[in-house]
Amino acid sequence: MIAAGYSNSESIATLGRIGGMAMPLISLPFIVTSALVVNIIPNITEKSTLRRYKEIDNDIMLAIKSTLIISIPLTLLFIILAKPISIFFYSDILVSDIIRIMGFGTLVLSLQHIYSGILYGLNKQFNVMKNNLIGLILRVVLLYVLVGNPKYGINGFYISFYTSELIIITLNVLALKRLVSLKFDYWDLVGKPIIGSLFMITLLYLSSYNLEDLHYANSLAFVSSIFVALFSYLFILIVTKNQHIQKNKRILATVFFYMKILQ
């Protein structure tokens, strides 16, 4: 970054905001996806051995759906409410732009994690290792080429991060398609969580009197409004008759477990 024109202190401060502030936030869904991966690997492996392919398809769809239900609202929260979040958690307005850009990483990392776990369960560890290696090599090359270039600077980090993660996800999805045949209901998978997320964010704005300046806000009131918004999100999913919410109690348990962890 110094080669791109940043001073030593600016370089350290920027990397600190990315690694110490933004990354822990966008990695929040790992609380859920890690639990899903730990449970889904032995389940899929056992059912694959017994050739219970229909149940494997159901477990895979449950895992993907659970991941999207958690990661989509958080992604939109980080993008739309980056400034209030940076003020409330870090009292540093400069980190808001980083949170907004890296907010998409919540969805990307969650999908990468769950697809890798599914492939592990299908005994395709080599595919996962190969795909991750390709992505990581690409990231290192792009970091070396772009970050030191004054034309890109810190934007080179964002480009390398998203490019490598999307390549890994694409390779994992292609590997998965060769093994199982899944039919995605995109309205149920993506559309309904987005509608619920927008409703949740609107309610959060209405219930918090000053989202743009939380330095002197009542922390308890703000946190309480977040939980009210989260429950409203779950309510919208139920009202819109989300298939997996309606039919599978395990996903409800996952969502409530996530909320409990946040407390």
Notable traits:
single chain, 263 residues, mainly alpha, 12 helices, 0% strand, disordered C terminus
Question: How would you characterize this protein structure?
Answer:
There is one protein chain. With 263 residues, the protein is mostly helical. It has one domain (2-262). Helix content is 80%, strand content 0%. It is built from 12 helices and no strands. The protein has helices at residues 8-26, 30-49, 53-80, 82-90, 95-102, 104-121, 125-147, 155-177, 186-207, 219-239, 243-247, 249-262. It is flat and about 55 Å long. It starts with 7 loop residues before the first helix and ends with a helix. The model is unreliable at 255-263 (pLDDT under 50).
Count of helix runs = 12
Instruction: Tell me the span between the first and last alpha carbons.
Output: 38 Å
Q: State which percent range the strand residues make up.
A: under 5%
Overall pLDDT metric: 79
- Which parts are unreliable, with pLDDT below 50 for 5 consecutive residues or more? 255-263
Described by its quaternary structure, the protein is single chain
Any idea how many domains? 1
Write down how many β-strands occur, each being a DSSP E stretch of 2 or more residues: 0
The share of residues in helices is over 70%
Order of helices and strands: HHHHHHHHHHHH
**Quick one: overall form?**
flat
- What is the C-alpha radius of gyration, as a whole number of Å? 20 Å
Q: How would a textbook summarize the main sheet?
A: none
Helix and strand composition category: mainly alpha
